[in-house]
């Protein structure tokens, strides 16, 4: 998944004949506003699990049916996009990775950014149905509740020298209300450039991450509420070459349900936190 993971609109325009493009916006946007030429519509809600298991994987049967209907094969090169700076598209890519898809890419920017300088079409392509095969991923970033509980202990006992950093990718107000002990706050939107609607430069991303102690030599454990926002941060970290990234899919939803410890408090620009027990 990680080679040339984030691709530009120009790159996609030059390679449309060699890739399969996936639009994860709502179907009405795909049909009514238009889409990248040749794209297929796989709305975000279609690859989320049922209510009650929000944010988790949809299941192999659901995923296989979606890929078959879209005419996507397991060895296709996929490029995903949305119109929300890539956060929904990133969740699609992480889901695809966990079902064993290998060649995955995020369009840097989103549909609005694409449509500024590139062709948009409204007619959908009718691809022949495929016979998609779910595979085991080459490696899985998924971790569960007990793993994160152990990570909290590693962070709290290691202090500034801890080899693990837990990252809360939600907004500051959410973090202040309740967060996993020892976590640093990094709003995923802080990685986005307002002008381009895509990622900030690699240099700025690395500086922002370093300010919070999120560096490549550490194990990075990601969480949000329902695994959507951490998908974007996960893709960004992989793009930057981070190798040890843990994806807590259950996130704070599961953490709270299982009675995990939480803290409240504010965080500053440097990641220093004034916390209190809740």
From TrEMBL:
GO terms for molecular function: thiosulfate-cyanide sulfurtransferase activity. SUPFAM superfamilies: Rhodanese/Cell cycle control phosphatase. InterPro entries: Rhodanese-like_dom (IPR001763), Rhodanese-like_dom_sf (IPR036873), Thiosulfate_sulfurtransferase (IPR051126), Thiosulphate_STrfase_CS (IPR001307). Pfam families: Rhodanese. Gene3D superfamilies: Rhodanese-like domain. Residues 15-123, 160-264 form the Rhodanese domain. Keywords: Pyruvate, Repeat, Transferase. Residues 256-278 are annotated as: Disordered. It comes from the Archaea. PANTHER family: THIOSULFATE SULFURTRANSFERASE. This is Thiosulfate/3-mercaptopyruvate sulfurtransferase. It comes from Halogranum rubrum.
